[in-house]
Design brief:
Helix content of chain A: over 70%
Largest sheet of chain A: none
Number of helices of chain A: 15
Number of domains of chain A: 2
Oligomer: heterodimer
Shape of chain B: globular
Largest interface: A-B, 94 and 91 residues
Helix content of chain B: over 70%
Order of helices and strands of chain A: HHHHHHHHHHHHHHH
CATH class of the largest domain in chain A: Mainly Alpha
CATH architecture of the largest domain in chain A: Orthogonal Bundle
Order of helices and strands of chain B: HHHHHHHHHHHHH
CATH topology of the largest domain in chain A: MetI-like fold
Largest sheet of chain B: none
Number of domains of chain B: 2
Number of strands of chain B: 0
CATH superfamily of the largest domain in chain B: MetI-like
Number of helices of chain B: 13
Distance between the termini of chain A: 53 Å
Structural class of chain B: mainly alpha
Chain lengths: 284, 310
């Protein structure tokens, strides 16, 4: 009897909320479509021949072709550019970790407050205002066009991220563990290496992933400082449009080649990427 | 220094080095990062300030002379390129920022309560954010292509006149704002969702019991509690929006279009330095740009303080 009463009450009450939840579902679906549809368009265009791209009726009904990717890897020879982007991205990320993680640890443990000013400064300064003196400097020492110059400048992008993310990570890590290790005779450096670092894997993963993505996506520095042999992907694709007639299929295939790696990273490391992007902003 | 001491004294020496390291850990750990910052950020900025009062141009090896504030005076009296670029930068930043905050807040509220497939939806929202901006620019270049793009197909099906979008003199900047909103609203959504998840539930619960409707609860409880997070998101976003470069360069080229219709301060600075090789003049422009950024940030910081207090 009581179960029947509950059932009746349940059936009566949710009429309003049910409509609401349908509205909400539709709303969420629209939001997802708005963010996803352009990317789907890019993806499908990469598998179309140039006639299908310009025919609206062929938006989703087309014969998929790999011809565009053939252009990207054949005529445009994108493979070396992928390697260049990888070398610069990994180099800038690894060095930023070596420089930034100990610094972040010191900032968090010794409460160095003006360090946040540096992170903000790195964000505020327009890249071009560093690029001019860098160009002067690297020209003097014949480094323009080298991986050294690209990695050094990309550290400007990666290190502030590492420092910001790791500082807030170390802030949240209780220092009792290090103190216990020090009582057991370990030095501070030893405690940092053997106790703190192993516990920091999530923070390290977050900062490494984000640093790599931002370096991979960076366009401005490589635009000026790379040459034929060190050109990174964003610069390579920007050269695509300088030809008289735009090969839209090839261009979209190139765009897919550039964005797929970061999207796969975002897909599998979603939690890390989100926590890294929102770190600092939610602390007020 | 001398590591080749007798084996007997070694543990003692080792300990003193260890102690010394421990005592100076603060400097040892921050030293390399500080050295990097000094060498590749502080010193270069100083050099840019120095260049801004010289006539450095055409080649980095060409000797240059001190010319005082001539570069600055030239820019500040330039009504053809400089002031329109200031206007475009302000218009682009404030419009994009406003739209991103309003749309981002609405979507964050929509996604706030848990639902089936929540993780998947967040991944979808993340995708525009991590996609390479130059590639995003190319993608929209095709979609907004006036004769073959999907945007005008949609316009036609809605019975609306086709637009020039990125190729139009009037519409280019607005279309770029649209692209920026598409790519960066997700950032606002994710920050606000993270902020919302830290809010206490009691005030909302209490207001519900007192009979406040959803809008009242949002307006008088959630919004004031979320204000600091919204402010932080706005400042982060404003900094990046003012410096937008990749999508403008990818869709409009080095000069921001044939009529410079999408030329912002950052684009102008790039073109002046690496297009025209006018390094001294570009350096002065960058100093003015930095001042402009600081003014906008200070305004936002003051607004944020006011907003948090209400």
């Amino acid at each position: 009897m009581s179960t029947a009463a509950v059932a009746v009450r349940h059936r009566k009450k949710p009429v309003g909320p049910k409509i609401l939840s349908v509205v909400r579902f539709v709303g969420i679906a629209l939001v997802v479509l708005a963010f996803i549809l352009p990317l789907v368009w890019m993806l499908t265009a990469a598998f179309k021949n140039n006639l299908d791209i310009v025919t609206p009726a062929r938006t989703f009904d087309f014969e998929p072709t790999l011809k565009n990717f053939d252009t990207v890897f054949g005529a445009q020879n994108f493979l070396p550019f992928i390697m260049n982007s990888l070398i610069v991205g990994v180099g800038a990320t690894v060095i930023a970790l070596f420089l930034g993680v100990p610094a972040a640890y010191a900032i968090a443990r010794y409460k160095i407050t003006n360090a946040t000013a540096f992170v903000l400064l790195a964000r505020v300064i327009p890249g071009v205002s560093l690029l001019i003196p860098w160009y002067f400097l690297f020209s003097q020492v014949k480094l323009v066009g080298t991986f050294t110059a690209l990695i050094l400048t990309h550290i400007f992008v990666t290190m502030p991220l590492v420092v910001a993310i790791m500082t807030s990570f170390f802030d949240g890590l209780p220092d009792e563990l290090e103190e216990a290790a020090q009582i057991d005779g370990s030095s501070k450096v030893g405690a940092f290496l053997r106790v703190v670092l192993p516990l920091s894997v999530p923070g390290l993963a977050t900062s490494a992933i984000l640093a790599f993505i931002f370096s991979w996506n960076n366009f401005l520095f490589a635009l000026v400082l790379s040459n034929q042999n060190t050109r990174t992907l964003p610069v390579a694709i920007s050269n695509f449009t300088s030809y008289a007639a735009v090969d839209w299929g090839g261009l979209m295939a190139a765009a897919v080649v550039i964005t797929i790696p970061v999207m796969i990273i975002a897909l599998f490391a979603q939690r890390y990427v989100i926590s890294g992007l929102t770190a600092g902003a939610t602390k007020g | 220094m001398t590591s080749t001491t007798t084996s007997g004294s070694r543990p003692v020496r080792r300990r003193t080095i260890g102690d010394w390291i421990d005592a100076h850990l603060k400097w040892i750990f921050t030293g390399p990062a500080v050295a990097f910052v000094a060498l590749l950020i502080i010193f270069p900025i100083g050099y840019t300030i120095f260049l801004s009062v010289t006539d450095s141009a055409s080649s980095v090896t060409r000797p240059f002379e001190f010319i005082g504030f001539e570069n600055y005076a030239e820019w500040l009296t330039d009504t053809e390129r400089f002031w329109p670029a200031v206007g475009r930068t302000a218009y682009f930043t404030l419009t994009a920022l406003g739209l991103e905050l309003v749309i981002g807040l609405a979507i964050a509220m929509l996604l706030r309560k848990t639902f089936l497939g929540q993780g998947l939806v967040r991944v979808f929202i993340l995708l525009p954010l991590v996609a390479t901006p130059v590639a995003v620019g190319m993608m929209w270049l095709l979609i907004f292509e006036p004769s073959i793009g999907f945007a005008n197909v949609v316009m036609k099906s809605l019975g609306l006149p086709p637009q020039l979008w990125l190729s139009g003199k009037e519409s280019a900047l607005n279309t770029l704002i649209f692209i920026d909103v598409w790519q960066w609203t997700p950032m606002i959504i994710l920050i606000l969702l993270a902020g919302l998840s830290t809010l206490p539930e009691e005030p909302d619960e209490a207001a519900r019991v007192d009979g406040a409707n959803a809008w009242q609860r949002f307006r008088h409880i959630t919004l004031p509690l979320l204000a600091p997070t919204i402010g932080a998101a706005a400042i982060l976003r404003a900094i990046d929006a003012m410096k937008t470069f990749d999508i403008i360069f990818a869709t409009k080229g080095r000069t921001g279009g044939s009529n410079n219709e999408a030329e912002t301060l950052n684009m102008l600075a790039y073109n002046e330095s690496f297009g025209n090789s006018q390094y001294g003049s570009a350096a002065a422009l960058l100093m003015l740009f930095l001042t402009f950024i600081i003014i906008i940030l200070a305004t936002l910081a003051i607004l944020r303080k006011k907003g948090t207090r209400v």
